[in-house]
TrEMBL record:
<dbReference type="Pfam" id="PF02371">
    <property type="entry name" value="Transposase_20"/>
</dbReference>
<feature type="domain" description="Transposase IS116/IS110/IS902 C-terminal">
    <location>
        <begin position="236"/>
        <end position="314"/>
    </location>
</feature>
<dbReference type="GO" id="GO:0004803">
    <property type="term" value="F:transposase activity"/>
</dbReference>
<dbReference type="InterPro" id="IPR002525">
    <property type="entry name" value="Transp_IS110-like_N"/>
</dbReference>
<dbReference type="GO" id="GO:0003677">
    <property type="term" value="F:DNA binding"/>
</dbReference>
<dbReference type="GO" id="GO:0006313">
    <property type="term" value="P:DNA transposition"/>
</dbReference>
<feature type="domain" description="Transposase IS110-like N-terminal">
    <location>
        <begin position="12"/>
        <end position="153"/>
    </location>
</feature>
<dbReference type="InterPro" id="IPR047650">
    <property type="entry name" value="Transpos_IS110"/>
</dbReference>
<dbReference type="InterPro" id="IPR003346">
    <property type="entry name" value="Transposase_20"/>
</dbReference>
<dbReference type="Pfam" id="PF01548">
    <property type="entry name" value="DEDD_Tnp_IS110"/>
</dbReference>
<protein>
    <submittedName>
        <fullName>IS110 family transposase</fullName>
    </submittedName>
</protein>
Length: 350
């Protein structure tokens, strides 16, 4: 994006919260604060903010923290009005550490930070991307909860009375869950045995229901991905969950300005750690979107197993002395480049 000072008269920084939004209008050339306001986080409050901005300048941009969270409603309202919206992930820590903290001050910092940053990003799109984001979150919650229930079943079986343990002896976890779901309580059992059986049955049925819920979410994800970007599913190692994760991070053409920026977002771009005469050192990038990083890792594991060219690459790099982890990091960087080029330079559904 072009330097804001060249295209707008003011930047409106907004610090978003659940019930209120605080905004500050900052002069784009001087950085001076022109006016501040706090409104309710409602449709009327959003309209009040726009009217507030209309009193000061037509050429303006909005710098909003949390465009995908507390600021999502305001962002949608502004985009419908064709306002220029800038997404701020978080203020620079160094600027906050030594200063006071309040909502109006955070709004001022947001506006000034938008003016100072060399590159600015727009908010992620709604529509298909937001639908995938919601489905991924719901599926992840169901999978995690199902895993918790399964582990609880396993632990309870280990500590269960012998007459109950005997029914599970020699069984793997899937069979244990099936057995537990069909248990019945007998009137002759003592309270410990009866309670253990009741809880085992409840946990097993919960795990089964959650697994079915996760499967339904995955079906819905597959439908959206096939409709939006079927070309992603044609890539080796890219299934519906991986594709949805990549699409949620990328969002739309032009949001991420280069493949290097996409790699940095994914946490697969090594961070230079040069010192003095040593100019070839790098350290691991443990930042970025960890869900996207995990998706790339899944692709790498699949290709190492099934893709001959990748296996040949692994063999060559191993002979050069690279460790398995180092090789996987290199592969993730290459895959990030390929996916970015595919997403940016191939047609998408209108």
């Amino acid at each position: 994006m072009t330097d804001l000072r060249e295209v707008v008269d003011v930047v409106i920084g907004v610090d978003t919260h659940v019930h209120t939004h605080s905004a500050a209008i900052v002069d784009a050339r001087t950085g001076g604060v022109l006016e501040e306001i706090t409104v309710e986080a409602t449709a009327d409050g959003y309209a009040q903010l726009v009217a507030f901005a209309d009193e000061h300048a037509v050429l303006r941009a909005w710098a909003i923290e949390g465009t995908g969270g507390h600021g999502a409603g305001l962002t949608r309202h502004l985009e419908r009005d064709q306002e220029v919206v800038i997404e701020l992930d978080r203020p620079e820590r160094a600027k906050r550490r030594h200063g006071a903290k309040s909502d109006p001050l955070d709004a001022i910092r947001a506006a000034r930070e938008a003016l100072s940053r060399p590159r600015l990003g727009g908010p992620r799109s709604g529509g298909d991307r937001q639908a995938l984001s919601v489905l991924l979150a719901a599926r992840r919650s169901a999978v995690n909860a199902a895993g918790d229930a399964q582990r609880q079943v396993f632990s309870l079986v280990i500590a269960a009375p012998e007459q109950i343990r005997a029914r599970f002896r020699g069984q793997k976890l899937p069979a244990m869950l099936k057995t537990a779901a069909g248990l019945r309580v007998h009137a002759s059992w003592d309270v410990e045995t009866a309670t253990t059986v009741t809880v085992l049955r409840s946990l097993a049925r919960r795990a089964h229901a959650l697994a079915e819920e996760a499967a339904e979410h995955e079906k819905a994800i597959r439908v959206i991905v096939r409709s939006w970007r079927p070309d992603l599913l044609e890539q080796l190692g890219v299934g519906p969950i991986v594709a949805a994760t990549v699409l949620c991070a990328w969002s739309h053409p032009g949001r991420i300005h280069s493949e290097a920026a996409f790699a940095m977002l994914a946490g697969v771009a090594p961070i230079p750690a040069n010192s003095g005469q040593i100019t070839t050192r790098h350290r691991l990038n443990r930042y970025g979107d960890r869900q996207l990083n995990r998706a790339l890792h899944t692709i790498v594991l699949s290709r190492i197993r099934y893709h001959q060219a990748t296996r040949d690459y692994v063999a060559r790099r191993t002979s050069e002395g690279k460790t398995p982890r180092e090789i996987k990091r290199c592969l993730k960087r290459y895959i990030a480049r390929d996916l970015y080029r595919l997403l940016e330079h191939h047609p998408v559904r209108a």
